[in-house]
Design a protein that fits this description.
The complex is a heterodimer of chains A (227) and B (541). Chain A is built from 7 helices and no strands. Chain A is mostly helical. Classes of the chains: A mainly alpha (227), B mainly alpha (541).
């Protein structure tokens, strides 16, 4: 398709010069986002590998350390995050239908739910500080031998590394939502052009899915062994 | 100069001037040149460290630098060369410049991300450079734990952070290439019509996208371990230092293929153009790139033969490592078969291609030696290994990189390089390279360990040979620097297609216009169909 650039631009302000058609541009952006998410899978995959290795090495200690986490708070937070994914889907649907006010409403709801998740996470971390469950010189886990202490500390190192990395992705997601809300308010998105909302949705769901794996790994496995 | 009566045709170099037009450019060709400038700086920085290493090794005593300084020299040589030269060298310069042109696209899919990835490389490079200037780092480029996390008193964090940041540069380049190849091909440019350079970059991009995030998370854990002492790699706290080696090599072995696959792509182009024949078994060569990319992820354990890895795992890794030889050999055999009954020209790029084939074969075959469990135990951490991977990285990657630079120089700059000087420098590099690194095979086999600067007297002859070769090699590398710059002003003006090549990049003027093609090309032939260029004037060859 020999494209006349000036002509193409007059037609659609969102079409960039390297593309011939808007469909091509949208395809490229979507593929790019999926590839980015694959790199994220590999990134978190490294963490999951380390977790698996040490869970296997010290199953008993990990079960005890894991059961000190509050499963009810974790479960409630999981529900919050799932709801935020639902509102995100509604925002994408609203964008497909070109309903500007609905996009903004659902994005703000997603933002609020994401904020609640992060707030609850901060509360949980704070509790760990008070219980001396934060790795470091003041780490102490009640009723364990000194060498077991080190292994319990490994569990909490992984707990903080994994939930911390997840929370960082949530914070980036919140920033992304703020950007999308601002752009939606300016009326940038329509039924014809809503790629950023679509891709933002993909990212948000991905971060959600990471948590769906983290929650059972950190909170649930071997919980019945607690006795 | 009164001859400039005809107004110069607008191209990507003269459409805008000034520092901002470069630092804020989104043109993949200009970004390619930014990369060229950056990686060249790191190449000469890494070369300076290598020079000091070779000077120290002239004598059996440690009389040029202290042991501590020597540790830092070989570490910083490795860091500069691997992370800031070899990995970005071909994909980010020649790949950036020519991948879109070869498939008939106006730019990469994400030009702004492309610029961002250059900035990430520069920022990462500055972090590592800061560490080098502030006092250096002494862990070896592999950062093995627990030395790097607990005992080393050098700038581990700053260096690792620099590598972490530059890793994202590599990821974004790979992502851009994959999307571009999938979505930006010109009409008629089917997958089986793509030049093999594009295929090999596609395979490379897959490794960049899948492997680099793993080393990123490994560096984060290294960082946490060193700063907060969380125990993940510390045996005294229940951690496993060998886990670091597994995670590190899961990326760093495929990273070797990030270095060599683009080089193979260049050689495929050169062998075809300068024997004026289609690449023999085009599909096999294309799929061999993909096979190398996939198999590359399954062999990391061959770096851990003398670690705590189980002997059964080692057996499997050894077995799988031999599999990599199959697609590699397919390529070498097919290049050779391409030459058969071809009209071979010995232009400079072809000399580099010949150099590549020979040196890569030696490097690859000695790779099989070290993939064998029994022999590897004998030569682990000796100069045999050093020689092996320098044959791949220097004899392979840098040879092909220089061949590619010469081949595409007329397209990039619109000027020819001086052929006589270029042939001479190719010869000097080939001789200097072999004189430097062949003695190291013997040294290693005789038991000279790597990373030591004091050695028994009987090794001195071979070390002196190696240092002499390094001096020759340095001359060979400096010559292109000089005549390339010279050619920018005094070189013969190049036509659109001085080699009579078939690629789309040659069907547009030299240097190319801003969006590469005045009219989007429509592809009707296979990649190396020389019937399409019959009758065109060939200037050199």
């Amino acid at each position: 398709m020999p494209a006349n650039d000036a002509h193409a631009h007059a037609e659609s302000p969102a079409l960039r010069v390297q593309f011939d058609t808007e469909a091509q541009q949208k395809d490229a952006s979507t593929l790019g986002m999926w590839l980015f998410l694959i790199t994220e899978v590999m990134f978190f995959g490294g963490m999951f590998l380390v977790y698996t290795v040490y869970r296997n090495a010290y199953p008993g200690i990990f079960a005890i350390a894991s059961s000190s986490l509050d499963v009810y708070i974790g479960a409630a937070n999981t529900v919050v995050l799932l709801c935020s994914s639902f509102t995100m889907v509604l925002a994408v649907r609203a964008a497909q239908l070109g309903q500007r006010k609905a996009i903004i409403l659902f994005l703000i709801l997603t933002l609020i739910l994401g904020g609640i998740f992060l707030g609850v996470k901060a509360y949980e971390w704070n509790e760990k500080f008070q219980e001396h469950h934060v790795p470091g010189s003041s780490f102490h886990f009640e009723g364990m031998q000194p060498d077991e202490q080190a292994h319990a500390q490994l569990f909490f190192s992984l707990y903080f590394a994994m939930t911390g990395l997840h929370a960082l992705h949530m914070v980036i997601g919140v920033g992304m939502l703020l950007f999308l809300i601002r752009q939606a308010q300016k009326g940038r998105y329509s039924a014809e052009y809503m790629t950023p909302v679509d891709l933002g949705g993909l990212y948000w769901h991905f971060v959600d899915i990471i948590w769906i794996f983290l929650f059972p790994l950190l909170y649930l496995i071997d919980r019945h062994l607690k006795g | 100069m009164i001859t400039a009566a005809v107004p110069e045709r607008e191209n990507y170099l003269n459409n805008a001037y000034g520092i901002k037009s470069w630092l804020l450019t989104r043109d993949h060709k200009r970004i390619g040149l930014l990369y060229l400038f950056t990686v060249t700086l790191f190449f000469f920085l890494g070369g300076a460290f290598a020079t000091m290493i070779r000077i120290e090794l002239l004598t059996p005593q440690g009389n040029f630098v202290s042991s501590e300084t020597y540790n830092k020299l070989f570490t910083m040589h490795g860091v500069a060369m691997i992370f800031f030269f070899l990995i970005p060298a071909i994909p980010a310069t020649l790949g950036n410049f020519f991948l879109p042109m070869m498939i008939g696209a106006r730019d990469l899919a994400f030009p702004r991300i492309n610029l961002l990835s250059w900035y990430l490389l520069v920022i990462g490079g500055l972090f590592s450079l800061f560490a080098m200037l502030a006092g250096g780092v002494d862990t070896g480029w592999t950062f093995y734990t627990p030395y790097s996390t607990t005992y080393s008193n050098s700038w581990v964090i700053a260096t690792a952070l620099g590598i972490f940041i530059s890793g994202f540069s590599s990821i974004l380049t790979g992502l851009n290439f994959i999307v571009t190849v999938h979505r930006m091909r010109a009409p008629g440019m089917t997958w089986m019509r793509m030049p093999l350079f594009v295929w090999s970059h596609y395979a490379t991009a897959l490794i960049q996208v899948l492997g680099t995030p793993v080393v990123a998370v490994t560096i984060i854990l290294l960082f946490c371990e060193r700063v907060f002492h969380i125990g993940i790699f510390d045996p005294t706290l229940g951690g496993d230092p060998v886990l670091f080696q597994h995670m590190f090599w899961f990326y760093s072995h495929p990273a070797v293929y990030i270095m060599i696959l683009p080089a193979m792509g260049i050689v495929s182009e050169l062998v075809s153009v300068f024997s004026r024949k289609p690449v023999f078994g085009y599909q096999f060569v294309a799929y061999a790139s993909m096979a190398i990319a996939v198999l590359g992820f399954l062999v990391w354990g061959h770096h851990l033969f003398v670690s705590t890895q189980s002997v059964y795992a080692a057996l499997v890794f050894s077995f799988l490592s031999y599999f990599v030889a199959i697609p590699s050999a397919i390529k070498v055999f097919n290049w050779t078969a391409t030459l058969y009954k071809g009209s071979i020209s010995f232009a400079t790029p072809m000399l580099y291609a010949f150099g590549f084939i020979g040196l890569f074969t030696i490097g690859g075959l000695t790779g099989l030696f070290v993939a064998a469990l029994g022999f590897d135990v004998h030569v682990t951490d000796t100069y045999f290994v050093v020689a092996h991977f320098h044959y791949i990285m220097v004899g392979g990657t840098i040879m092909a990189y220089l061949g590619g630079l010469h081949y595409w120089w007329p397209k990039i700059t619109g000027r020819m390089y001086p052929e006589g000087w270029a042939k001479l420098s190719a010869l000097i590099i080939f001789l200097g390279f072999n004189l430097t690194f062949f003695p190291q095979f013997i040294l290693g086999y005789l038991g000279m360990p790597r990373r030591y600067h004091v050695y028994p007297d009987e090794f001195q002859v071979l070390h002196v040979l190696s240092t002499a070769g390094a001096s020759v090699l340095a001359v060979g590398y400096l010559m292109p620097m000089i005549y390339f710059i010279w050619s920018l002003r005094y070189g013969k003006v190049a036509s659109a297609n001085p080699w009579g090549a078939t690629g789309l990049e040659w069907q547009t003027p030299s240097p190319p216009p801003v969006h590469n093609f005045d009219v989007t090309p429509i592809v009707t032939h296979d990649a190396y169909d020389y019937s399409t260029v019959i009758g065109q004037e060939v200037e050199v060859g």
